[in-house]
Amino acid sequence: MDLSGKVAVVTGSGRGLGLAYARALAAAGASVVVNDVDAQAAEAAVKQITEDGGRAVAEVVAVGTGEAADALVNRAVNEFGRLDVMVTNAGVLRDRVLWKMSDDDFDTVQHVHLRGTFTCARAAAIRMREQGEGGRIIVAGSPAGQRGNFGQTNYAAAKAGIAAMVRTWAMELAKAGITANTVVPNAATEMTKTMPLFAPYIERYEKDGTPFPDSLRKGVAFGTAEDCAGLVVFLASDAAKDVTGQCVGIGGDKLSLWSHPQEISAAYTDGGWSADAIAAVWPTSVGRLPETYGIPAPQL
Ligand SMILES: NC(=O)c1ccc[n+]([C@@H]2O[C@H](COP(=O)([O-])OP(=O)(O)OC[C@H]3O[C@@H](n4cnc5c(N)ncnc54)[C@H](O)[C@@H]3O)[C@@H](O)[C@H]2O)c1
């Protein structure tokens, strides 16, 4: 996969998945603007990429505002002359059950994930349309956004919103040759290392490189951040020029395509549905096989 001559921005790429994406894009030949709120992490990422022979600069700014998004696009253009790939990956968690979630918990997560994705994609789309040579918008979704997840009202809302925005952008940007896709990753990072099920495996992996077992890599599609990076390079490449509007799952040894929400059953009655009429047919008709929800508990 050759991304020589292409320029990418990766938000939240000081560590975790973003770092793996930035390194893989640079290894494929792209010049990368590394972004993070954590200046030390961003600088370390740039050092790592340049030591590996890649080209990267750090732009330390908190994504979420239009100004931050403009700063990232401007940095790409000023430093490397153009922008081809925008990867919106920066994220935070503020998990609480609904009745304990504060306005601030909710707004913080929307600001970084939903607004951060919107503002960065908008700034990228403006620049890419001006360039007139197409482009790639690659955003971070989550199983929580696809299915809902206990304690994640704010995060599930943001991630579902991100997937919905991408379907919209795929339509709006098609004429300009700009694709928009959602990556739904699953990997050992700061964000996931405290999950009790994964913690002992991550500890061993970090201590002496003990690989994750098949039960994790295949069974629950859980592996390293590097396992997810090939998908981002693919989506950034010419090979994926016709892939757009998709939600693609990646983790451990598994690559998958998520379905989009769609009607799965319907019934009709002349003159429309009263509450009584709905109640009468619900158990045997439209409501006969209700949808499941939530991320299935991993079985190891
Ligand atoms: N790790 C997983 O299994 C998993 C699963 C589903 C979705 N995701 C998504 O993937 C993305 C990356 O997750 P991760 O696991 O690597 O997380 P992480 O916590 O390891 O890394 C996130 C990075 O984003 C940075 N960041 C936070 N707020 C920022 C802001 N406003 N501006 C710029 N940078 C900011 C952090 O400093 C950090 O370096 C997130 O959007 C996350 O929701 C991760």
UniProtKB/TrEMBL annotation:
> What's an example of a GO molecular-function annotation for this chain?
oxidoreductase activity
> Where does the source fall among the domains of life?
Bacteria
| SUPFAM superfamilies reported in the protein's UniProt record | NAD(P)-binding Rossmann-fold domains (SSF51735)
- Annotated TM spans: none
Family matches, as PROSITE patterns? ADH_SHORT
Q: Does the record bear Isomerase in its keywords?
A: no
What keywords would UniProt list here? Oxidoreductase
Spell out the family assignment given in the record's similarity comment.
Belongs to the short-chain dehydrogenases/reductases (SDR) family.
Q: This chain belongs to which protein, by name?
A: SDR family oxidoreductase
